């Protein structure tokens, strides 16, 4: 999942269920991709935003029983000297054992992520986890929505891998725009009735990047009204 916040910080979050080789090199690749996307838009390197690559692992990637492993670029000769290149890589481990060293909310979230389908429905007494549970229920409630969501996730991966490559066929671009509109409308229908004026606004939007941003805003909204306010 790729996202950015109000400070333009970029986040690339990936779930790792099975152990894969060279996770460090994988994180380097993702960091480079985020930098390249910005530079290809004409931004100067001094304007590069902070970037975070976050792996949520259902295994301990380093075998030290930590819930969280955080990596930044520091000086080997002096640990207090930070390169300040804006890059951070975080590995979250659902099998951690150092509860006292990390926030309780993080432990609860990782315990939720570790559960199977049945276990994920139990009470975790955490507002954020409750929000995740509600979202998952909404997705499961609509088989078509679930399929669209998976297509959208794959579309984002392809878009990132393409790295703004030139020469993409117009038909492919139009198909992605249409798919994004359908996915957005289906998700909003799970939140409530979609007014015609909002439906028309979505149908008239032809910018894929805008539609992606609207999809992210929709996923964070609790109602159709809240989403409509966010895109004004």
Rg estimate, integer Å: 20 Å
Approximate helicity band: 40-55%
Mean pLDDT: 82
Q: Indicate the overall shape.
A: globular
Strand coverage percent: 5-15%
Count structural domains.
2
- How far from one another are the termini? 24 Å
Largest beta-sheet characterization: 5 strands, mixed
User: In sequence order, what are the helices and strands, one letter per element?
Assistant: EEHEEEHHHHHHH
Number of separate helices = 8
For the secondary structure, the number of strands is: 5
Q: What structural category characterises the helix and strand content?
A: alpha/beta
Q: Which strands sit side by side, in order, in the main sheet?
A: 1-2-3-5-4
Point out poorly predicted stretches: 163-171
SSE topology:
Elements: E1 2-4, E2 10-16, H1 23-39, E3 51-57, E4 68-71, E5 87-93, H2 104-114, H3 127-140, H4 143-162, H5 170-191, H6 196-204, H7 208-220, H8 224-230
Parallel strand pairs: 2-3, 3-5
Antiparallel strand pairs: 1-2, 4-5
What would you note in describing this structure?
It contains 8 helices and 5 strands. With 232 residues, it is α/β, with parallel strands linked by helices. Helix 5 runs parallel beside helix 7. The chain is globular, with a radius of gyration of 20 Å. It comes from Mediterraneibacter gnavus.
């Amino acid at each position: 999942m790729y996202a950015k916040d109000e400070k333009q910080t970029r986040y690339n979050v990936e779930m790792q269920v099975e152990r894969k080789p060279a996770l460090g090199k994988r994180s380097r690749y993702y960091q480079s991709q985020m930098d390249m996307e910005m530079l290809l838009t004409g931004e100067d390197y001094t304007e590069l935003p902070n970037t975070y690559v976050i792996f949520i692992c259902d295994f301990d990637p380093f075998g030290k029983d930590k819930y969280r492993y955080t990596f930044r670029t520091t000086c080997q000769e002096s640990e207090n000297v930070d390169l300040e290149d804006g890059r951070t890589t975080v590995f979250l481990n659902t099998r951690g054992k150092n509860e006292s060293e990390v926030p309780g909310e993080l432990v609860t979230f990782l315990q939720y992520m570790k559960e199977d389908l049945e276990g994920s429905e139990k009470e975790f007494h955490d507002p954020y986890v409750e929000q995740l549970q509600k979202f998952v229920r909404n997705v499961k409630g609509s088989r078509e929505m679930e399929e669209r969501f998976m297509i959208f996730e794959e579309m984002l991966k392809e878009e990132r891998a393409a790295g703004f490559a030139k020469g993409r066929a117009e038909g492919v671009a139009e198909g992605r725009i249409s798919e994004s509109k359908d996915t957005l409308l289906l998700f909003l229908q799970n939140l409530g009735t979609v007014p015609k004026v909002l439906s028309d606004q979505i149908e008239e939007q032809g910018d894929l990047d805008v539609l992606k941003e609207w999809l992210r805003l929709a996923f964070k909204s609790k109602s159709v009204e809240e989403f409509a306010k966010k895109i004004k």
